[in-house]
Specification:
Length: 215
Amino acid sequence: MWKRAISPSTLLSSPKSSFLNQANGLGVLNLFGLMLSGGPGSGKGTQCVKIVETFGFTHFSAGDLLRREISSNSENGAVILDTIKEGRIVPSEVTVKLIQRAIESSENYKFLIDGFPRSEENRIAFEQIMGVEPNIVLFFDCPEEEMVKRVLSRNQGRVDDNLDTIKKRLKVFAALNLPVINYYSEKGKVHKINAVGTEDEIFEQVHPVFAAYDV
């Protein structure tokens, strides 16, 4: 499991102290972590909903957290917006801190992180800042043409839902994500999912991954 050390003073002052004490009573927060990886349009978000409903995970989408920060009209949000418009990846530290804030505001011990890390820099920053690594990494493998078609057809009004930007994002994803997948593959944590098919057909591949875990 993910494990993060919590000092006694943090336990006493934290609004989650009651939950933490009930969970372990030893000043250590035991987390079960799941990360989902796949290009834009690979269907991660849809499968996240099914995983949450079936296995009781709390879902954090890196993209959703970034967009929420943008909508807050903060200075940090403005920088994030400019970065996305240019088809670049938001600095790792910014995303990790948004994820950290979301985790600390939840009382669940099972976390599903969607769309992060997408590079070795992301991964290293996450593990250094959070002091944890995932139990499971699901990699949704989807052909580029299928991902482009899905993104262009979803019509969500996002600034990055246009052909030029989506192709830039796919190139960035392909160049940076493979080392992360390889790293976690060597640790035996990656489960590759064929992301072509209906939602139910894809989930039929996802469901057995959890059979070996008591979550």
